[in-house]
Inverse folding.
């Protein structure tokens, strides 16, 4: 698909997978994107979350995002959940709620379902994962249970909203979901939360926008999941060129994490002026096997001396912060200790210079 030409009814948007620990979110994400992750260096400034991958098809583009909170099992049920859920849900177009076919629906699922219902009006597709681990009959029963959960949660949510509405007379006319979708351009408008809307959108299949079983391991219905998620995204041009995929997930993500940290707080000043290359990434020799350390050397390129000053900060204070934040996130990504060395370099007008772009891996 050419980035510049796409069908009129092309849909594109952001999706996030949520669910209990071990529900199969990562495996499904990987199955959807085919183990590839996105280079997100010149992505639209819409999400602060790491992009896990992009599903490109002739008629849609699905950008799967990750959030530290929703991905990490511990924090998922932690106290920051509400904030993180609200933040994430405000930024995505559709949510995949993963529930294992082979586990009883429990308080964890119920809690997440309630959070999803209360947080806003984003369509939630209930995905019953690991379909290969149960019989057809058990799968049918689980689908029914998931549908019941949706009905129960959504009817409680409807009651809460009706009560709130009754108390808030007179109130402003809320946005309808349709109105939101129409004016939801690919960029910051997506942030407009639909939380104010009165009518939950997840009124389709048993309280969910849809329900679908899948087996990421066997490849059963993976494509259908992509299509279903895409069907709930707005009509929009592709958000990323198709070439923005790589087979080197770790290096790319490391570069992206450094870039993210560098832009934190100065996004408006230098949104597209920062590029990061990983020059070296190696396991340090002579470390104990159970306590490895990865040495990472990166170059952080800016276009002008003034930008270099912003990155470095007073007596190097910002650069130290950037290093600390990036290191923490890289350690979480790699699961090992990391020594991170960042060199700030000025590559004049690198955005306009094809040679420089090539060197920087664009
Ligand atoms: N048989 C089978 N196993 C699966 C399938 N999907 C995931 N699994 C297994 O279930 C386990 C958990 O899967 P993950 O994808 O890591 O689950 P997650 O929801 O990302 O887990 P957290 O990162 O802990 O939140 C892994 O051992 C997977 O191999 C599937 O379709 N079939």
């Amino acid at each position: 698909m050419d980035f510049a030409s796409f069908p009129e009814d092309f849909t594109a948007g952001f999706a996030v997978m949520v669910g209990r620990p071990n529900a199969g979110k990562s495996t499904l994400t990987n199955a959807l994107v085919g183990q590839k992750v996105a280079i997100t260096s010149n992505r639209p400034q819409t999400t602060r979350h790491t992009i896990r991958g992009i599903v490109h098809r002739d008629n849609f583009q699905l950008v799967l995002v990750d959030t530290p909170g929703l991905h990490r099992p511990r924090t998922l049920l932690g106290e920051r959940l509400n904030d993180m859920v609200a933040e994430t849900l405000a930024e995505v177009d559709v949510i995949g709620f993963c529930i294992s076919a082979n586990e009883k629906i429990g308080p964890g699922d119920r809690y997440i379902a309630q959070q999803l219902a209360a947080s806003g009006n984003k369509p939630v597709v209930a995905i019953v994962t690991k379909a290969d681990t149960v019989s057809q009959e058990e799968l049918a029963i689980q689908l029914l249970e998931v549908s019941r959960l949706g009905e129960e949660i959504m009817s409680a949510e409807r009651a809460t909203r009706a009560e709130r509405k009754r108390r808030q007379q007179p109130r402003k006319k809320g946005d309808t979901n349709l109105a939101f979708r129409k004016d939801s351009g690919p960029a910051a408008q997506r942030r407009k939360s639909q939380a104010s809307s009165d009518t939950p959108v997840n009124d389709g299949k048993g309280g969910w926008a849809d329900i679908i079983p899948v087996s990421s391991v066997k490849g059963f219905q993976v494509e259908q999941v992509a299509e279903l998620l895409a069907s709930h995204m707005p009509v929009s041009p592709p958000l990323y060129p198709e070439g923005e995929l790589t087979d080197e997930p770790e290096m790319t993500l490391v570069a992206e994490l450094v870039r993210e940290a560098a832009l934190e707080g100065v996004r408006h000043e230098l949104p597209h002026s920062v590029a990061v290359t990983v020059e070296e990434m190696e396991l340090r020799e002579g470390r104990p096997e159970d306590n490895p350390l990865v040495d990472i050397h990166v170059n952080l390129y800016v276009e002008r001396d003034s930008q270099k000053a912003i990155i470095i900060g007073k007596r190097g204070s910002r650069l130290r912060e950037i290093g600390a934040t990036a290191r923490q996130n890289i350690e979480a990504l790699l699961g090992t200790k990391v020594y991170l060395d960042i060199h700030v370099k000025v590559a004049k007008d690198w955005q306009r210079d094809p040679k420089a772009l090539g060197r920087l891996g664009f």
